[in-house]
Amino acid sequence: MSAFRKPWWPVAGLSGTVAAALISAVLPTAPPARAADRPGPPVPARYAHQRLHWQPCVAKPSVAKPALECASMTVPRDWHRPGTGADLTVEVSRHRAAGPARRRGVLMMAAGGPGASGLARPADFVARSPAVGAAYDVVGFDQRGVGRSTPAQCQTDAEFRDFYAHDFRDRSPAALRGVLARSRQLVAGCLRHSGDLVPWLTTGQAVRDMDLFRALLGVRKISYYGPSYATWLGAYYATEFPQRIERAVLDSNEDFSGTWQNAQGGLPKSFQRRFEQDFLPWITRYDTIYHYGRTAADAKARWEARRRALRERPLTVGTLTIGPNQLDNATIQSMYNARQFPRLAAALGALDHWPSTTPAERARVAKLFTSYLSPGFAAVYFSVLCNDTPWRRDLGYWLDRSAKDTAAHPLVGARELAYAATCAAWPVSDAPRVRVTGRGLPTTLMLNSVHDPATYYEGARAAHRALRGSRLVTVTGGGDHGQYQNGNACVDGIVNAYLLDGAAPDHDVACAAGPLPVPSERRG
Predict the structure, then answer these.
(1) Which of 168, 216, 297, 324 is a plausible cystine mate for 414, CB 3.0–4.6 Å?
(2) Within the chain, which residues score under 70 in pLDDT?
(3) How many angstroms separate the CA atoms of 334 and 115, rounded?
(4) Residue 60: what pLDDT?
(5) Chain-centroid distance, C-alpha 168
(6) What does the alpha-carbon distance between residue 283 and residue 3 come to, in Å, rounded to a whole number?
(7) Separation CA 323–CA 327 (nearest Å)
(8) Rounded-to-integer distance, Cα 502 and Cα 101, Å
(9) In order of start, what are the domains of the chain with their CATH numbers?
(10) What is the pLDDT of residue 101?
(11) C-alpha separations of 26 from 29, 395, 407, 428 in Å
């Protein structure tokens, strides 16, 4: 691997206290990622001529799904230098078309994140859309670095917990030094444990894995479904291999028209919007159940008071410590789908009467508060975000911006510095930019809700403009992340007609969101 380069972090012009904090946190020298993601030579025979040895996935307990088959695929570490470095394994899966006589092809699907496992998803996808499962072999995979594929590692469980253990809202010099130090430690851990892998964890490398998978399946074209980060993956694949796409559905779209820095930059505002405009009014509607306030302002004040109390005196559930960041984590995770609102509301109520909670209540709280990410997810998440596109490395800029976002949009804005500092410290990647245009593609279907917190609507519209010829289905009045198979008959009807019959809308269309959930105490 080539020599390490040191990120440049100017500190001139900052206050003496903050400058001292930054100087003490300057990272050690770090290696640049090697050249990657440039158009490469033909696929070497040892990859192109391999055979997929399909076995029932029930042999693998973590993916025990009836009718799902799994296989291992060998890929080069660097598609542009396939003779360099040890090969990687990408684990793939397949659910065969339930109606072979009506089979129309292969539908490849991918997981979000980046960092989520996609191996078991075809079985769940088919269960929710049996007509599509009857017409397609639905295939999935664990992206390089993820799950049963060659895994990336950056942190131990304890190190990962420590990354989130402190209050991200604390802007004292000592706290800022701690944030930067933990970002430095995360990067160092990636390089120490997976330094020969993380430079090649890019979307550009992953799409070439996907095309090898297509070729080994023996098909000339695929259809594609991808939610969240998988929209970025799908847009890049369609740009690099437009002749291989028959139909594509991009659900809850990242703004793949620009950089990850820009795409991530809108998250503080969009998560705060979802929290304040959707969740807080919802919980006040059921004040007789949750007793959290009769107005959104009252409920927000109560949530903030709980956060302050957890900072002063964290709670423990077994080995779990619930502090202010853990309250943020649980709230952030619950914003993705309104079906999670009752679970969060019940947990907030339990925190308010913690000494008298029942064992069942404590178990539910523990389940909610331990569901936020994992070290393996974070290893791939940061690798892809930091490798794919350039990040600004001026910590003075990030200190100023994160201070403003912490004040205005604290739910996610408070952790902006920790995430940005990680990419600012990351080895300088020379992965070339992929410019998504839609050139040479059939009509692509894009789905997004107006209050989606994780793939916000403004970014989805920018991606829609970049992907010429696409059709955007806007879900109005809602904010769930993931629109297809989410109980919306309008959306499902449009997607099914497109996948099964090729019937794309003539223009952008809108579907109304379904009703928000009713707490179980009010049903019956």
Answers:
(1) 168
(2) 1-41, 59-66, 522-524
(3) 19
(4) 52
(5) 20
(6) 54
(7) 6
(8) 18
(9) 54-151+200-259+433-512 (3.40.50.1820)
(10) 83
(11) 9, 10, 25, 15
Contacts of residue 269, defined as CB under 8 A and 6 or more positions apart, other chains included, come to: 408, 409, 456
d(CA 280, CA 303): 10
What confidence score (pLDDT) does residue 399 get?
98
pLDDT at 26: 37
Question: What is the pLDDT at residue 33?
Answer: 38
Structure tokens at 439: 């050139």
Rounded to an integer, what distance in angstroms lies between the CA atom of residue 163 and that of residue 418?
A: 9
Among 202, 252, 204, smallest CA distance to 227 is for: 252
Provide the whole-model pTM. Answer: 0.92
CA atoms within 13 A on the CB side of 93: 34
52 in Cβ contact with 73 (< 8 Å): yes
Q: What are phi and psi of 470, to 5 degrees?
A: -80, 160
Do 144 and 78 meet the contact criterion of CB atoms below 8 Å apart?
no
pLDDT at residue number 271:
98
Q: SS3 of 134, please?
A: helix
Taking CA 383 as the corner, what is the angle to CA 380 and CA 388, rounded to the nearest 5 degrees? 125
Helices and strands, number each (H, E), in the chain = 22, 12
Instruction: Count the neighbouring beta carbons within 10 Å of the beta carbon of residue 51.
Output: 8
Residue 94 phi, psi (nearest 5):
-150, 135
Q: φ and ψ at 476, to 5 degrees?
A: -90, 150
Is residue 453 within 8 A of residue 479, CB to CB? The reply is yes
The C-alpha atoms of residue 227 and residue 140 are separated, in whole angstroms, by 13
Residues 474-517: pLDDT tens digits? 999 999 999 999 999 999 999 999 999 999 999 999 999 999 99
Separation of CA 487 from chain center:
22
Which pLDDT score is estimated for 59?
A: 55
What does 296-361 look like in DSSP terms, one character per residue? HHHHHHHHHHHHHHHHHS-EEETTEEE-HHHHHHHHHHHTS-GGGHHHHHHHHHHHHTGGG--HHH
Output the pLDDT for position 65.
64
Cα atoms in the 13 Å half-sphere on the side-chain side of 266? 22
DSSP-based three-state secondary structure for 476? strand
pLDDT at 41: 65
pLDDT for 2 equals 35
Question: What would the DSSP string read from start to end of 54-101?
Answer: -EEGGGSGGG--TTEEEEEEEE-SSTTSTTSS--EEEEEEEE--S-GG
* Cβ–Cβ under 8 Å, residues 458 and 261: no
Tokens at residue 287, please? Answer: 């004040």
